[in-house]
Amino acid sequence: MPDFPPVQADEGVTRQVLADHPDLMVVSFRFEEGAEGKLHNHPHIQSTYVKSGRFRFVMDGEATEIGPGDSFVIPTMVTHGCTCLEAGELVDCFTPRRDDFL
């Protein structure tokens, strides 16, 4: 199994692919307090699990505060993003995989 090193995804955010298959990808995102996952969308279905920290997450214009143990699914092409309120980690799964992360 290949090792994927952490990469700088944005200011205060690192991304590391944990597992990869053409049909599914598991990715860890580590956020510093105040860092943002800018609003975006993509054709992949995404599930997000909050491993640690607190986040204000916006999905399709609706904001929700989430914390450890929370999880949800983002349908294809839905605009979403987050602001980190307390440093932490999100574990995201994408189907199909995000080739742009390789």
UniProtKB/TrEMBL annotation:
Residues 29-85 form the Cupin type-2 domain. This is Cupin domain-containing protein. InterPro entries: Bacilysin_H2HPP_isomerase (IPR052535), Cupin_2 (IPR013096), KdgF (IPR025499), RmlC-like_jellyroll (IPR014710), RmlC_Cupin_sf (IPR011051). It comes from the Bacteria. PANTHER family: H2HPP ISOMERASE (PTHR40112).
